[in-house]
């Protein structure tokens, strides 16, 4: 409810009184520099899906689960109010500024406002950050493909579905509703087929380490090719399909919580325990995506600003997408402090097989929580 109020009232206040996006008819860079590659005027619904899933990755899921170690209240307050008054405002502002600066990145804007030396330093920082993010994500996805080979087929089929959908939407000018629903249904069918026909490099005689390395190489090749393609051909439709999955999944999670009504196992606040780190300032570092993240400014200025067809859409795409990520972080927190009690049996690295899992077992100590 607070997220909805923040979007309806606070975001509208910022849009009207601070950015004046309703009163000023800005010439957006997507129209001014349209080239069919990076500068592509896009419907706000599709661009919302593209931006939303670009910022909402693993971090808003992992961060709140770690922050649950300190109890449910600190993370809840930070996620809700951090999203409304900081994270969403930051993303909204970064997007508006980039649109009004003709689609320039944050690094280029710093060069204009401050000096060229600062721009160079910022670009070096962005390059190093991008390397780090690519390395972490490549390791994570490669590890996923090796440990769960049933995931390989649906993940790669989505690329093909996205290419077909991009062709249908932008060259055939067909409405997005039917193709997106069809793609989502087909994707879930291939999730099932993936469980029947797992894809693995093990028959080639490769050990687990070699398989991971091979997948990392293939993922980097894919990333390089994807970065060269027109944004409407792969990135937009792929993320649009992903947004349907994410929204559908969030809906199922909250419906499940409403039906099961699990008891909250976690304490309100935890400040004492074996090896417990300080709540402040580590909470704000632990839950970045899901409350406020500077990385979102790179996404907003690097790609999204070049696809805005009307500056008034920045409210939905900038502020609204961050509210969506905050909702994802909230769902993760609820799962960590309450939903964990619904697990009847599991195997934890710290204690072995557990027949009745709860928060106190999982988060017994900081070391055990980190191991689990």
TrEMBL record:
It holds the Pfam family CstA. Its main location: membrane. GO terms for cellular component: plasma membrane. InterPro entries: CstA (IPR051605), CstA_N (IPR003706). Keywords: Cell membrane, Membrane, Transmembrane, Transmembrane helix. Residues 2-338 form the CstA N-terminal domain. It is found in: Cell membrane. It comes from marine metagenome. This is CstA N-terminal domain-containing protein. Coiled coil: none annotated. GO terms for biological process: cellular response to starvation. It is a multi-pass membrane protein. The chain crosses the membrane at residues 52-70, 76-99, 120-145, 151-170, 177-194, 214-234, 246-264, 279-301, 322-343.
């Amino acid at each position: 409810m607070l997220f909805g109020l923040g979007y309806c009232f606070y975001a509208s206040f910022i849009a009207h009184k601070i950015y004046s996006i309703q009163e000023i008819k800005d010439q957006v860079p997507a129209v001014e520099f349209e080239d069919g590659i990076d500068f592509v005027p896009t419907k706000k619904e599709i661009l919302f899906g593209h931006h939303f899933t670009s910022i909402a990755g693993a971090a808003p899921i992992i961060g709140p689960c770690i922050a649950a170690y300190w109890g449910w209240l600190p993370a809840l307050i930070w996620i809700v109010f951090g999203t409304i008054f900081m994270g969403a405002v930051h993303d909204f502002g970064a997007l508006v500024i980039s649109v009004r600066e003709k689609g320039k990145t944050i690094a280029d804007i710093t060069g204009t406002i401050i000096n060229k030396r600062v721009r160079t330093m910022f670009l070096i920082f962005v390059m190093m950050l991008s390397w780090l993010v690519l390395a972490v994500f490549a390791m994570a996805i490669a590890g996923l493909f090796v440990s769960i080979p049933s995931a390989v087929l649906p993940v790669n089929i989505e690329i093909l579905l996205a290419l077909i959908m991009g062709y249908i939407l932008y060259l055939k000018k067909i409405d997005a509703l039917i193709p997106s629903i069809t793609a989502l249904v087909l994707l879930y069918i291939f999730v099932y087929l993936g469980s029947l026909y797992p894809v693995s490099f093990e028959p080639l005689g490769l050990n687990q380490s070699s398989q991971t390395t091979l997948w990392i190489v293939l993922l980097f090749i894919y990333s390089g090719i994807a970065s060269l393609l027109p944004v409407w051909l792969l990135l937009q439709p792929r993320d649009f399909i992903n947004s349907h999955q994410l929204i559908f999944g969030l809906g199922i999670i909250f419906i499940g919580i409403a039906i099961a009504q699990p008891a909250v196992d976690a304490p309100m606040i935890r400040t004492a325990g074996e090896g417990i780190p300080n709540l402040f300032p580590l909470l704000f570092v632990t839950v970045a995506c899901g409350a406020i993240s500077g990385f979102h400014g790179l996404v907003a200025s690097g790609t999204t600003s070049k696809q805005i067809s009307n500056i008034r859409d920045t409210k939905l795409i900038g502020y609204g997408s961050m509210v969506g990520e905050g909702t994802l972080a909230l769902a993760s927190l609820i799962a960590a402090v309450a939903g964990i009690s619904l697990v009847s049996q599991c195997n934890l690295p710290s204690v072995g097989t557990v027949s009745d899992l709860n928060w106190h077992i999982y988060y017994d100590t900081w070391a055990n929580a980190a191991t689990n």
